[in-house]
Amino acid sequence: MSKTFSIIKPDATKRNITGSINSIIEKSGLRIIAQKRIKLSKIQAEEFYSVHKDKPFFNELINFMISEPVIVQVLSGIDAVEKYRKVMGATNPENAEEGTIRKLFALNVQENSVHGSDSIDNARNEIDFFFKSE
Ligand code: IDP
Ligand code: MG
Questions:
Q1: Would you give the DSSP letter of residue 28?
Q2: Do strands 2-8 and 114-116 pair parallel, antiparallel, or not at all (unpaired)?
Q3: For 28, 108, 112, 122, which has the most beta carbons within 10 A of its beta carbon?
Q4: Which residues have any ligand 1 atom within 6 Å of their CB?
Q5: Planar angle of CA 63, 65, 41, nearest 5 degrees
Q6: Residue 36: CA count within 13 A, CB half-sphere
Q7: What is the distance between the alpha carbons of residues 130 and 35, in angstroms, rounded to a whole number?
Q8: Cβ neighbours of residue 102 under 8 Å, at least 6 residues apart?
Q9: pTM of the model
Q10: Residue 31 has what pLDDT?
Q11: Res 133 pLDDT > 80
């Protein structure tokens, strides 16, 4: 068993589809072992996405991520990081496979409904960033 970190993004909380997304996560076999609804501060969002700070979409991404509350989650399962990336689907929903969260729910490449860690190291760091104090 391993863990990964997930965010249900503002486009999804705004549309009231967090339950539908959690249902897909659970049907995949991943277990939601922690979650909370929070509003990201600008500083938190900038730090969380600092790897993208030089990308042309960075400012828009930060404004999107702080526009509405998000649900931050810890998921557990076998090969959780890799598994959740598959369940999420490609970053751009136009390229996402049928049945993935992004294919089903994403509005566009930015408003793509979910975040999932892309490595075991990043999963640990991202979980610590949002849940360490608990
Ligand atoms: P990922 O979420 O699939 O790991 P990343 O490349 O790490 O994708 O990008 C982080 C987030 O930045 C994406 O999920 C999406 O919200 C946003 N993003 C990525 N590429 C673009 C783009 O080309 N235009 C606008 N937003 C983008
Ligand atoms: Mg990423």
A1: T
A2: antiparallel
A3: 112
A4: 52, 57, 61, 91, 109-110, 112, 115, 118
A5: 85
A6: 7
A7: 10
A8: 88, 89, 90, 91, 93, 96, 112, 113, 114
A9: 0.98
A10: 98
A11: no
Q: What percent of the chain is modeled with pLDDT above 70?
A: 100
Alpha-carbon distance of 134 to 58, in angstroms, equals: 30
- Which ligand 1 atom sits closest to the C-alpha of 118? 4
pLDDT of residue 103: 98
Q: How far is the CA of 122 from the centre of ligand 2 (A)?
A: 10
Using an 8 Å Cβ cutoff, are 87 and 28 in contact? yes
In Å, how far from its chain's centre is CA 119?
Answer: 13
Asked if residue 82 has pLDDT above 90, the reply is: yes
115 is catalytic: yes
Instruction: Give the whole-angstrom CA distance, residue 72 versus residue 6.
Output: 6
Q: CA-to-CA distance for 49 and 27, rounded, in angstroms?
A: 28
pLDDT tens-digit readout, 19-53: 999 999 999 999 999 999 999 999 999 999 999 99
- Using the Cα atoms of residue 48, residue 123, residue 92 and residue 16 in order, give the sign of their dihedral: negative
Q: Taking the CA atoms of 134, 12, 41 and 3 in sequence, report the sign of the dihedral they define.
A: positive
Give me 98's structure tokens. Answer: 């049928």
Can you list the alpha helix ranges (DSSP code H) found in 10-107? 10-14, 18-27, 42-48, 58-65, 80-88, 101-105
